[in-house]
Amino acid sequence: MKLAAKAGRETRPDLKLGVCGEHGGDPESVHFFHEVGLDYVSCSPFRIPVARLEAGRAAVQSQGSDHR
Predict the structure, then answer these.
(1) pLDDT tens digits, the chain, 68 residues: what are they?
(2) CA 26 to CA 19: how far, in whole Å?
């Protein structure tokens, strides 16, 4: 996925990439998708709070690792 995202954005820098499905609301999956550079996840309504929380955590954690 990381290679596909990189290759796609080399051709089209404004390319938005995401994933749709129940794994879009799974905490571990959200962190993985953030690491590989996806822009968004889509999931069922009852998973949205968890997906948003984990997306925020993933962003904060990656900012902390960027400054090391």
Answers:
(1) 999 999 999 999 999 999 999 888 999 999 999 999 999 999 999 999 999 999 999 999 998 775 43
(2) 12
**How many separate helices (H) and strands (E) can be counted in the chain?**
3, 2
Distance, in Å, from the CA atom of 41 to the CA atom of 39, rounded to the nearest integer, reads 7
- Length in residues, the chain: 68
Write the CA distances from 36 to 45, 46, integer angstroms: 24, 25
DSSP, collapsed to helix, strand or coil, labels residue 38 as coil
